[in-house]
């Protein structure tokens, strides 16, 4: 994924995560999804038309459409009030593809760190599927936190590392990235835990009701 495009993927993930957390209203998040979604469809199309059939270039551009269509789909739902089931099941497709792209980064492309990033996205899009496709609203806040975290740590930070030619490679960086991803998932799960409502009652209230 291009370093510039990756930066704005990070931005839209942060916005969408804040939306899931109730910080950003849905319609306020629609514009960023439209902008980034359009960019992630137009740019890879241009790349494909100029690829001269190069398999590596085609492979690299192909994954961008998954994100472009996701964000355009999000914008459509936000602006039209359409239900989220379609987006949820599309997210399952994206998650499965992300596993394939992650595996290819370990085996074919020899970029294990970005393979870890793809696997992280597979987990996130799987959460979108559970939340939207299956309607499990109990994980909304957990999904929101994880979305924000991945926007920063798999979007913005890797983008700046690529832009400044400081992007790390090798198995060591992949191990660190994997440990960080697991830690962020656990943190998101803890921060997004549903608030427990106390079932205890004042003794006098209980007595009065019996």
From TrEMBL:
<keyword id="KW-0472">Membrane</keyword>
<feature type="transmembrane region" description="Helical">
    <location>
        <begin position="175"/>
        <end position="193"/>
    </location>
</feature>
<feature type="transmembrane region" description="Helical">
    <location>
        <begin position="144"/>
        <end position="163"/>
    </location>
</feature>
<keyword id="KW-1133">Transmembrane helix</keyword>
<feature type="transmembrane region" description="Helical">
    <location>
        <begin position="113"/>
        <end position="132"/>
    </location>
</feature>
<keyword id="KW-0812">Transmembrane</keyword>
<keyword id="KW-0813">Transport</keyword>
<feature type="transmembrane region" description="Helical">
    <location>
        <begin position="86"/>
        <end position="107"/>
    </location>
</feature>
<dbReference type="InterPro" id="IPR003211">
    <property type="entry name" value="AmiSUreI_transpt"/>
</dbReference>
<dbReference type="InterPro" id="IPR038523">
    <property type="entry name" value="AmiSUreI_transpt_sf"/>
</dbReference>
<dbReference type="GO" id="GO:0005886">
    <property type="term" value="C:plasma membrane"/>
</dbReference>
<keyword id="KW-1003">Cell membrane</keyword>
<feature type="transmembrane region" description="Helical">
    <location>
        <begin position="56"/>
        <end position="74"/>
    </location>
</feature>
<feature type="transmembrane region" description="Helical">
    <location>
        <begin position="31"/>
        <end position="50"/>
    </location>
</feature>
<comment type="similarity">
    <text>Belongs to the AmiS/UreI family.</text>
</comment>
<protein>
    <submittedName>
        <fullName>AmiS/UreI family transporter</fullName>
    </submittedName>
</protein>
<dbReference type="Pfam" id="PF02293">
    <property type="entry name" value="AmiS_UreI"/>
</dbReference>
<feature type="transmembrane region" description="Helical">
    <location>
        <begin position="6"/>
        <end position="24"/>
    </location>
</feature>
């Amino acid at each position: 994924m291009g370093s510039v495009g990756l930066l704005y993927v990070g931005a839209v993930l942060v916005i969408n995560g804040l939306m899931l957390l109730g910080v950003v209203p849905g319609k306020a998040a629609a514009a960023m999804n439209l902008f980034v979604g359009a960019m992630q469809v137009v740019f890879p199309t241009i790349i494909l038309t100029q690829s001269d059939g190069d398999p590596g270039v085609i492979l690299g551009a192909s994954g961008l459409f998954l994100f472009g269509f996701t964000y355009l789909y999000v914008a459509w739902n936000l602006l039209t009030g359409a239900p989220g089931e379609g987006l949820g099941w599309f997210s399952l497709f994206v998650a499965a593809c992300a596993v394939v792209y992650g595996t290819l980064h370990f085996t074919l492309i020899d970029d294990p760190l970005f393979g870890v990033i793809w696997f992280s996205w597979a987990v996130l899009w799987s959460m979108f599927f559970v939340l939207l496709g299956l309607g499990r609203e109990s994980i909304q806040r957990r999904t929101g936190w994880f979305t924000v975290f991945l926007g920063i740590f798999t979007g913005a930070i890797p983008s700046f590392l690529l832009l400044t030619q400081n992007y790390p490679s090798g198995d060591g960086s992949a191990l660190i990235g994997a440990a960080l991803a697991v830690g962020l998932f656990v943190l998101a799960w803890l921060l997004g835990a549903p608030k427990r409502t106390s079932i205890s009652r004042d003794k006098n209230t209980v007595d009065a009701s019996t």
